[in-house]
Amino acid sequence: MKKYYFLGVSILMSVMLDAQNEQITKQDTTALGEVIINSTRISLPFKENSRTITVISSEDIKQSAATNVADVLQQFAGVDIRRRGTSGMQADLYIRGGSFDQTLLLIDGIKVDDAQTGHHSMNMALPLEVIERIEIIKGSAARVFGQNAFTGAINIVTKKNQENSMSLGVEAGSYAQKNASVTVANNLENSSHLVHVSRNVSDGYRYNTDYDNQNYFIKSTFNKSKLPINLMTAFSERKFGANGFYASPTATNQYEETQTSLVGVSTEIKKERLTLKPRMYWRRNQDEYIFVRQDPSIYRNLHQTNKVGAEMNMQYNSNLGITGFGIDIAKVYLSSNNLGNRNRFMTTMFLEHLFKLADNKLDITPGVAVTYFSDFKFHAFPGVDISYKLSDQLKAYGNIGYTYRIPTYTDLYYSDPTTLGDANLKPEEAISEELGLKFFTNHFSASVAFFNRDADKLIDFVKDNADDPWQATNIRQLNTKGFELATNFNFKLGNLNQDLNLSYSFLEDDIKSLNVNFSRYSINSLKHHVTSKLSTSFIKNVTQNIVYKYAERTNGESYSVVDASINAIFNGFEVSVIANNIFNTDYTETNLVPMPKGNMLFGLTYHFK
């Protein structure tokens, strides 16, 4: 699927859209408690869920002093985004100390995991302009989503049924950053369309960290008056210098190109007490890695992964409660000059039931998921969620579940002069528990959660002698425990909104001793993680945002970073100034790749009326 197809379709649709009567409408300010969390098997309002879930609204994103999903997620305690370079060109996603292979990313409920490696999960992170909200689900989520939701999942929910609008945006800043975007929405009588095209380029903040990123997105809803059919297509191409990103930090001439596309079709059928949600999708990822950018013949890897799947999620309401059940069928194809030609067939069946007892104050939701893999056979992961409403504002909850992850094709088959996979690897396993409290009022919310995870058969690359190659093996046992606190306070000065967020997470890893001399993957989680955001407005249509992040890892490394932004809207124009790392902190997030010092980005967007 080539980018030129998406470009042509996007331009054609943009021409067809009638923008003459477009009006700028304010973002829907539905109260958080009324947001329906559809990423879970049983759809429930946010307040009624018995899990640790964070919802990042489009307004939160606008106030985040961030330009991409990776930077937005970094602002929430318990989520560890380890970036290589800037603008989210390459970033790995961790939740509660797990690995990048143990966290699942979804888009509108579609699982976009990559069977080659979890390094590619964030390739499909969408442009912020098309995102309605982001849902962060922490803790064991395998019962709901299947494998790879080992430590949690993140669901990106895209916008739909937008009012007629069109916006043109340009940005420029440090390191010769130049960004341009076009977003068009059209709401017709029986269909609606959202189209986005953008390109982001930079010379890089140090040698060989330049990038060129292009994004194309189309979401359409047809037959709105009867049975709506939703069609989504997305394509992202990334080309970037990867100075020290992989292998050794001294490998300064590495280079990578990725192309990731997603096509999904879905609908929702309601018949009295039964709701059916069928979905079909196709995700494709192509990754080209070159060890020496100037001479690809020295070492080059080329991988192509295709995943084709179909789901049927169902929900039935009865006098006994709500039953959620469904089936997910998918097949993965891999073609690689290093990993070989591989394929895998997967089938997952889900079943859970929500019981409401004690005058609807007590919720109990037991459930189980059973998965068959053509190369790993059957695996079952049961679990149960429990919550009790202590008052209209206060709720206690807990959950326990079994979770697991099957090895990636890189774990199984990767081979180079220094690294060997193991085709006999077994799935990673864990038992995860959580207890928490949630408190809500109109202007203040707070939550606390305590969690514990006992993991076994974790995959590491080890060796006995310094000159031996790294060998993949199921060798690690790990206990992870900790707690999280999150608060939000919003108030008004006159008629102007003010908002303050503060969150903290503590995590402790108990690593069982390894009977080996060398281990590649040291556990280096965020032991202490503090995030806060203050959004203020003292003049109408002008907002100021300050974001503070403190991180201390289990190896003792620590750093603080402060970002800030100003947004102003007048006569259809929106002006923004974003300043990152304003105090020039020296720090790295992974693989000793230094992050950039203070830098700025200036933006101008015009919203057509």
Account of the 3D structure:
The chain has helices at 3-16, 58-62, 69-73, 142-145, 409-413; strands spanning 36-37, 44-45, 52-57, 79-84, 90-95, 103-107, 110-111, 131-138, 152-158, 165-173, 177-187, 191-202, 211-222, 229-241, 255-267, 269-271, 274-290, 300-318, 321-336, 340-357, 362-373, 377-389, 394-405, 415-416, 419-420, 428-440, 444-463, 470-493, 496-511, 518-519, 526-539, 542-553, 558-570, 573-580, 599-608. The protein has 609 residues and is mostly beta strands. The protein has a single domain (3-608), classed as Beta Barrel (Maltoporin, Chain A), CATH 2.40.170.20. The model is unreliable at 1-30 (pLDDT under 50). It has a 22-stranded antiparallel barrel. A 5-stranded mixed β-sheet has the order 3-8-9-6-7. Strands 1-2 form a two-stranded antiparallel ribbon.
Q: Give the helix/strand class.
A: mainly beta
Total number of domains? 1
CATH H level, superfamily name? TonB-dependent receptor, beta-barrel domain
Q: Determine Rg (CA atoms, Å).
A: 23 Å
**Separation, N- and C-terminal Cα atoms:** 34 Å
Give the beta-strand count. Answer: 35
CATH architecture: Beta Barrel
Catalogue the unreliable spans.
1-30
Which fold name fills CATH's third level, the topology? Maltoporin, Chain A
Query: In DSSP terms, counting alpha (H) and pi (I) runs of 4 or more, how many helices?
Result: 5
Q: Can you give the mean pLDDT?
A: 89
CATH class: Mainly Beta
Kindly state the percentage of residues in helix. Answer: under 10%
Oligomer type: single chain
Main β-sheet, in a few words? 22 strands, antiparallel, barrel
**Overall 3D form:** globular
Strand residue percentage: over 45%
